[in-house]
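Throughout our pipeline, every protein is held as a single compact record rather than as scattered files. This encoding replaces a full spatial description with a residue-level series of whole-number codes. The remainder of this section carries one protein's record, kept here as part of the documentation.
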Amino acid sequence: MTPTSVAPSAATPITEAQTDAFYRASTLGLAWLDARESAPRRFGSAADASWRNYAGTPTDLTELDRLELLLRDAASLYPDAFSPRAVFAIPGLTDDEPFGQWSHVPAPGLARDAFRTPPAPVADVRALLTDAAREWSVALGTPAPLLPIGPTSRVLVVGAAALVAVAARFADHRDLSFHEQVVVVTDAPALRHLAGLAALALGELRAPRCLSPEVTPSSPVAASVAALDLLASSDDASTDERTAAEALLSARKR
């Protein structure tokens, strides 16, 4: 399970808008996988025929059942990109329980529309994350210029646009390890999902560690973070996120 410092879902209710955003952005991840397989099995006429054969006629299974089965299957390999457990930091669940007691249902027609009009394939990680940010209604700002990142660099990331920029840099340098070298300061489900989708696009099974802005530099959680080398930031980060990131970098600077 990807470590987090707090479990926001325990205190903050998951909204209808967040539920819809999770399903829509996860659908983008499914389409990413489909586009990179010789025989796509999630969307398209062949996948529709397979579903009809599986579900039978008549059937009590719905398009939402179909979508959630696909998400559960994908979460078995990429849990941070496809499971509510990871995205919403739901406590008390293991990796093989991506949904757990999940009872949130997306807007009527969302799953149906996903299969009728699947997302168009995208070419790279930047496009995937930009589309996913849009589904989460996250307005990407402007990232600060990135310093060089080497195979041993440890990068602290704050802000959605900075996360996109760092993921794109890692895509250009495949000798780097996104989940091992990056730490993200956030307690926002949207950014946790972007981190998971970035790892998916980079071919990594795990997302970077996400730390809440509430973590103090003197806390055991902060002490468990390996020494850091540089900060990647963007102007869409909140004041609390930026302040926490700067304090953590100062405390853990190599």
In short: The mean pLDDT is 91. Residues 16-35 form the longest helix (20 residues). The CA atoms of residues 11 and 90 lie 10 Å apart.
